[in-house]
Structures are given as structure tokens and as C-alpha cells.
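User: Need the bound-state model for pyridoxal-5'-phosphate:
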Amino acid sequence: MVVSYHRSTQAIIHTDAITENVANEVHRLPKNRELFAVVKANGYGHGAIETAKAAKKGGATGFCVATIDEGIELREAGFTEPILILGIVEVNYLALVSDYDLAFPVGTLEWLEEAEERLAEFPVKNPLKIHIKVDTGMGRIGFLNSIEVLQAVEAIQQNPQMDWEGIFTHFSTADQADDRYFQMQNQRFKDALKVLPHLPRYVHVSNSATALWHDEPIGNMIRFGVAMYGLNPSGHELKESYPLKPALELTSELIQVKRLEKGEGIGYGETYITPKAEWIGTVPIGYADGWLRKMQGFSVLVEGEFCEIVGRVCMDQFMIRLPQAVKTGTKVTLIGSNQQKTITMQDIADHLETIHYEVACTISQRVPRKYVK
Ligand SMILES: Cc1ncc(COP(=O)(O)O)c(C=O)c1O
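Assistant: Bound-state model below.
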């Protein structure tokens, strides 16, 4: 999909907000704890490279991505800091992760056996940087018990093509007020650490929610994701420990404004029929941009007023009801502030009955990202 630069719709990313969110967290961390910025999924839709630059400025000393290609993107942009892939790497790609110096998790003994066979046949240039993943209750990837963790450590240490760089786990409920499951996971991880002969360079357990709301977890690195984009990981449930600055605004402009008489249908399927004569504006962004059909009935801001989206959202455009005649070219704010009124990503998530993570990642590649300070 090409980026549609020649259209007024854009996502404006305030990189200084990202820098500030990271810096605020870095200042709160104990001295021996580093912050790795999670810039997977194109920096949660904000753009991986620019986000990584802004996070580095705020004090991030490494990065987390989800896939090999996301790691390569950072390396090719010139980042020399540690990069940890959070997903499982297929053994076919060991040479690639070695060449690009990308660390990655291992979560089963079968994987290690397969990798050993592969490495015997096709040695890698630089030892593979391996982080042992302990599944303490997420049920996703990782070793399920301490015996296997220890066996994995031994296998890695016996192989000169492998470097045991880290051990970690991931909490599934750190963003909830009830911390019983969190505490259980934390205890399981501590138990897994007890069997180790020594600790590797990185021990890490904290995502944003853990960093914001749980002081006690161990580790010398945190994987800081959604909060650095200025979004509260818990949605509404827990209050931010310090103010997070949202980094993304989504704006467009009215491309047509018209007065329609009573009884006119708007959009596919005439799901909205003007109940009286109304001013209707058209906004050039649609579901192909990630502005989903379910946004019908939600509002956007024009000249400081909430204007309802009427009729179905089309692939590339949608229509709104305006309170009065407004000039073509007037700014439309879909996310962000417009004359003292604000629409947050959380508002959109509430309307869509989802989480803001999904809203941010859904803004498609077609929408240009403009970086401002
Ligand atoms: C393993 C792991 N660590 C850290 C993160 C960052 O989480 P958050 O964005 O909530 O800070 C994620 C995100 O999904 C993850 O999967």
C-alpha cells in the first residue's frame, strides 16, 4: 500500500511527547535498571524509526520488536543498541539474526535441539543472543517449569554458538487493580530464577503497566511499550502514576460541504436519512485507513464542535453532520484537541469496545505520519 501524501489526512506524531514519556520513566527507575523501548508493529502505528529515535533521546538503551524484519529495519536505520525480538524465531533464520545481532527468546527444549542440529550444519558468524522465556501464566510462549529452564541454560552454555543473554517473563494482568494473578506470576518467576547457576546480563519482567503500578518486580531492564506513546495501559482502570503525554494526533480536512434537504440518504445503504435540512461534510479517510465502519455514530471535532459521523464509513471517506455551513478545507480532528475539546484514542477504543493498542495499530500505512516536535 502506498502512503497517500497528497491528501489532507495525516497522523501527526509529537516526538517530544515520546521522549518526555520515556525520560519520566527512566528517572523513576532504580539506577541499575535500563529501559528498552518497545517499537514493534511500526512503533504501535507511530512509526518505528522516529519513535526509536525519540525514545533513545529520552534515555532508552535498547529496543524490543516482534519480528526479525522489524529488527532489521532498526539496524538498517543505523541503531547499534541491543535489539530484542519478542516473538519466536524459526531455526531457518538463525544466520539472519546472528548477522543483524538481534537477540531473541527461546521457550522450548525442542527448539534448542532443532537449533543445535541446524548450527552443526550451518554455523553462524556471531553467537546467538538468547533470552530464556519463562511462561509464568500468560500461556503464550515460554518454558513452563524450572527443570526445563535449567536444562535450557545448560544446553545454551554448552554451545559456543549460543550466548545466554537474558531471562524474562510477561505478566498478563499487570494493568488490573486486582493483583493476585500478577503476584502468582511474579512468584513463579522468582522460583525459576532460584534454580539458575547465575543470572545472565538481562533479567526483565516489566511491561508498561508493571513499571507504572508494581514497584516490587525484580529485573535490570524494563520493556516499555504503550506508555511511551502516552497511553494508559489499563485504559480506565488505574490512574497513571505520572501524566503520560499522548503522541499521536489524527487530522483531516473537509473536502466537500453541502446543505441537504430533509429525507436525503447518506452513504451506502442509506442508513442515515436527514431528518431535516442539514449541513453535511465529507472527510477523506475511511476504513482502508483504519477508520473502521464501526465508527459510524462516533464524532469528530470541527471548529471545536463534536460532529457526528452519519451514514456508513466508506473505504476512503465518511460524512459528518455539521452544525452550520463550514468552509471546505476546514480542519477535522479525529484524534487530538481542537479548540479546547479533545478526542482521545481511549474514546475511540471505548466506542469500538476494544483497547487503544488496537486503535493505534489499526491506522493503516496509507496515512502519512508527520513528525513534529
Ligand atoms: C513480551 C512483551 N513485553 C513487553 C510488551 C510491551 O507492553 P506494553 O505496551 O503494555 O508496555 C509487550 C507488548 O505486547 C510484550 O508482548
